[in-house]
Design brief:
97 residues, mainly alpha, Helix Hairpins, 3 helices, 76% helix, 0% strand
């Protein structure tokens, strides 16, 4: 029951990651996929080992890693914007030496 929304979220994330040219939209799609994985951790833990909390801890750890990854990615995007004045993927080639 909970795996269907997770699958839909992951599919939307993959579609957005592949089709978008804006780096912020790509980052949002990546976060959508990571949240889908967190839901899967919790759901599989609930159904396979209902007395243990391992899936919950994995989900919390994944959320912390995703927050750190988002902070680093936004810092990189801001620096790219300062140089290229755009956040489109096609403008990244200007940063090559």
């Amino acid at each position: 029951m909970y795996l269907i929304p997770s699958l839909i979220m992951f599919g939307c994330g993959v579609y957005g990651f592949i089709t978008r040219k804006n780096m912020i939209a790509i980052l949002i799609s990546l976060e959508l996929m990571l949240n889908s994985v967190d839901i899967n951790f919790v759901v599989f833990n609930r159904f396979l080992y209902p007395d243990q909390m391992d899936g919950m801890f994995f989900a919390l750890f994944a959320i912390a890693i995703a927050a750190a990854e988002t902070a680093v990615a936004i810092a990189i995007i801001i620096n790219i914007y300062r140089v290229a004045k755009k956040v489109d993927i096609s403008e990244i080639t200007k940063l090559k030496f």
